[in-house]
Amino acid sequence: MECEIPKHNSTSQEVRDILSHSKTIAVIGVSPKEDRPSHWIAKYLMDQGFKVIGVNPGIGELFGQKVYKSLADIPESIDIVDIFRPVEAVPAIVEEAIQKKAKVIWMQEGIVHNAAAERAWGAGLKVVMNKCIYKEHGRLSGR
Questions:
Q1: Which one-letter DSSP state was computed for residue 54?
Q2: What distance in Å separates the CA atoms of residue 136 and residue 143, rounded to the nearest whole number?
Q3: H/E segment holding residue 136
Q4: DSSP secondary-structure letter at 6?
Q5: What does the pLDDT average to over 102-113?
Q6: Which residues pair with 62 in a beta bridge?
Q7: Per-residue pLDDT band at 1 (split at 50, 70, 90)
Q8: Contact 66, 98 (CB under 8 A)
Q9: 5 with 112: CB under 8 angstroms?
């Protein structure tokens, strides 16, 4: 499926605000394979002081921490839901994030789903599409 063009997206200032006010990030589709972006970006975020919670029904633990089967299974509040899944999975993840009362949907580079973004905005969540949280954090922190 070809990547859509975002109808609208968070500005650089909004991304800065999101990253500076967020503490807990759920990484959807985190991989145990070290060469996968979802693996090393999750580790990077942990190293930057974020609390990172992995979500992947296929693994039980990563970085010495429990990995959850779904967002609904996480027993605490989530600031950012960082999506490393195919675009087709985004609407269901957004619905889970709304139920979980997450604050932000973050779709990694190459992931744009305008209808799911509209649903999230309508439910009061902030949305970032087609941007890498690693690159954005690095850019904004002067790395």
A1: E
A2: 10
A3: helix 133-140
A4: P
A5: 95
A6: 65
A7: very low
A8: no
A9: yes
